Structures are given as C-alpha cells and as structure tokens.
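Prompt: May I have another protein with tokenized structure?
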Amino acid sequence: MFVSRPVVHPVEAPPLREGGNNAPRVRMKDVQGMAGTPGGLVLRLFQFLSAVVSLCVMVTISDFSSVTAFCYLVVAVSLQSLWSLSLAIMDIYALLVRRSLRNSGIISVFTVGDGITSTLTFSAACASAGITVLIENDMDRCSMNPCTRFETATAMAFISWFAVSPSFFLNFWSLASG
C-alpha cells in the first residue's frame, strides 16, 4: 500500500526588526479622491457647492413647501451641504498639517456618512424629478409653476450625488483594503 505521508519543510523565521514591532506594515498608496488628498478636497467642495446651489434655488421658490418631495429635497441637500463642508474642512486641515486621514475609525465614519448622505440626496433628487415631470409633462402646469427652477434644483442635487459617489466608493475601498 502506498500511502502518502506529509513532508515537513523547515521555515525560517523572518529577521527581527528593531523597535519591537516585527509585523511588516503594508500601506496602500493614497489615491486622489480619498480623504485627506487634494482630489478629495475638490470632490468635497464640488459636493458642497452643488448642494448649496440646489438648496438656494429651491428655497427661492415661494410654494415649494406645498410638495413633500421638494421639502425632502431641501432637507437632504441641507444635510449634504453640512456634511460636505465639514469634511472639506477636515481635508483642508489634513493637507495643511500634512497629516494622513488613514485611521480606520475616521474612514469608517466618512464611509457611513457618505453612504447615508448620498442615499438621502439620491432619493430626494429622484422624488423631486418625478414630481417635476408630473407637473411639467403630465399635468402641463408649468405656466403656474416655476418648472425651470424645479429642474435646476433637481439637477444640482443629482450632480451633488454624482460627486458624493466617488468619495463613498474610495473611502469604502480604503476601509476594506486597510
């Protein structure tokens, strides 16, 4: 009977490093768009500006509060603008003091916050787009309503969502790989 037997090969231990920390540290390269990079700051500022434009356009409409979807859009882009501004300030600080924001706790907060705000902004923009199409195409009441402003506010909310998505995915990728 030929039964295979395991063969044990000796494995050498890696050389010890000075300083007590012997585990090799592999660090992922900073990708532009992640927190604490110039690309991340540009994304945050773009998110903030498009959310603020959407908010300002919607608030200038006198009867926006009569439609729930438009109220939801105002709340969502308000939250998005506050979130993006606060993270832009964090990015500016990190860039000025040359500090990395690669702490897993910080990136977890960024990822969850980006996920929540992007979901809220996207759903509010979709709801507002639906109401805008209803008013403009189905009911044909643009003569009584400022449809162009509704469309502008909704489009800016979608642009804000498009700018949040790369931030969310890059932070999530950084969190998963680190």
